């Protein structure tokens, strides 16, 4: 393995590009390969064994591309499958979990909200995380339908606004002062969410923290790239238009069955 091999990033669709963007901004010289398994999105409604199988499929694709490190840019895949991935494959994995810790630590009302998929909220790893913050009231909400709307390019639709209003209103009434976005798709909804939340409620996602952790692991275990410039490549197993649009049509998007 050498420093200039790519970083692999996978998600159940286009949402993990929010994580990829944070990594690319912090480590612009790193070659990256992004894998959007949009054909199987959303992972949040699948069983644990299905999520593990899909995560292994994605990992094997990225290993064939000689990736030196893999970022699981999906909360549901991390909370359900990263333990199995680390046990099976001899490569560093970076996971993404809902940022409960900073929200619970800084909350003045001791009440925070989390918007996530069913797969994340039902996972053993999530429940273990929540147990550490028993003094904080955590309002959980499954984001039914949100990933599907994002994947179909309907981020700014009336239906999206209606769903977000339905999901966030009980949290506002419960006096949350932090909202944790527990799905890598959801940062793309921040403009919509800000129209609904009062301005004093802070919104937290995991992109910056994941990017810093990626940098730290590379320094410790693999080494940073020596490249002067990178050429990111994006793969999807459905129509590449939505992925290309979310990237502002700046990068090559390849459709490939996997």
Contiguous helical run count: 11
What oligomeric state do the depicted chains represent? single chain
Distance between the termini: 24 Å
Q: Spans of 5+ residues with little confidence (pLDDT < 50)? A: none
> What's the helix-strand series?
EHEHEHEHEHHEHHEHEHEHE
Rounded average pLDDT:
95
**Major pleated sheet:** 6 strands, parallel
Number of strands: 10
Structural category: alpha/beta
What overall form do the CA principal axes indicate? globular
Radius of gyration: 18 Å
**Sheet with most strands: strand arrangement:** 4-3-1-2-9-10
Q: Can you give the helix content as a percent range? A: 40-55%
Q: What share of the residues does DSSP label as strand, in percent?
A: 15-25%
Describe the protein's architecture and organization.
There is one protein chain. The protein is an alpha/beta fold and 258 residues long. 43% of the residues lie in helices and 17% in strands. The model has no long low-confidence stretch (mean pLDDT 95).
């Amino acid at each position: 393995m050498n420093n200039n091999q790519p970083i692999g990033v996978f998600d159940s669709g286009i949402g993990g590009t929010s994580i990829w963007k944070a990594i690319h901004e912090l480590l612009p010289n790193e070659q990256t390969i992004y894998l959007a398994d949009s054909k199987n999105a959303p992972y949040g409604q699948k069983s644990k064994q299905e999520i593990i199988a899909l995560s292994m499929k994605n990992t094997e694709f990225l290993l064939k591309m000689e990736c030196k490190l893999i970022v699981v840019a999906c909360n549901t895949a991390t909370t359900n499958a990263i333990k199995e991935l680390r046990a099976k494959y001899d490569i560093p994995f970076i996971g993404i979990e809902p940022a409960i810790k900073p929200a619970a630590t800084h909350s003045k009302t001791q009440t925070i909200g989390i918007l996530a998929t069913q797969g994340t909220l039902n996972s053993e790893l999530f429940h273990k995380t929540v147990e550490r913050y028993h003094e904080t009231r955590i309002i959980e909400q499954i984001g039914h339908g949100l990933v599907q709307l994002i994947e179909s390019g309907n981020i700014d639709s009336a239906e999206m606004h209606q769903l977000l209003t339905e999901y966030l209103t009980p949290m506002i009434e419960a006096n949350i002062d932090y909202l944790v976005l527990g799905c890598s798709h959801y940062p793309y909804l921040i403009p919509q969410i800000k129209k609904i939340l009062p301005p004093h409620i802070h919104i937290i996602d995991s992109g910056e923290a994941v990017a810093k952790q990626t940098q730290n692991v590379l320094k410790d275990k693999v080494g940073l790239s020596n490249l002067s410039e990178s050429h990111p490549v994006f793969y999807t197993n459905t129509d590449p238009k939505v992925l290309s649009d979310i990237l502002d049509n700046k990068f090559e998007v390849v459709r490939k069955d996997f």
